[in-house]
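Quick one: Anti-sigma regulatory factor from Ramlibacter ginsenosidimutans, structure tokens please.
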Amino acid sequence: MRPRWWSACSRPSPSRSWSWACRWKACARRSTSNAAWSCCRAAARRSRLSVEDAGGSLPLRSEEDIVASRQKVRVLTQQLKFSLVDQTKMVTAASELSRNTVVHGGGGEMRWQLVDDGLRRGLRLLFEDTGPGIPDTRLALTDGWTSGKGMGLGLPGSKRLVHEFELQSVPGQGTRVSILRWK
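--- reply ---
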């Protein structure tokens, strides 16, 4: 049998509004009422995405930038509470598209935007470069086609990992790839 009183920070079962990290003095012995957990709920609200994270961009010029883009996407998907599988799918797609931007496009930029349509939340990523472009986008989305020495699975694989995929390319002007995954 559980005692009637316990520390608010040692709540018996985790929930979205509870954190082991909460050690505020105000969390000392309290009753089992919902009011007892108000400091924990406040901490959870503060850990949600801030307005600054609603959108932004990262340059893609080197291997280090590719790693940084993967790390940023991982953080954003975690903050959006994506499942581990969905996080991995989005990070994998972002990694491949970042690499394409650096290797084939000569560098560019990754932009992100949090999307909310009222019923669901998602993450949109936009990869842009001013490289040579892709002459035949339909062919580029075919498994096995490659313009270099790769296996030709990057673009079609990325398309399978997300809910929305849009590829725009003009030879000589660059490429723009937009992906979106909903939670």
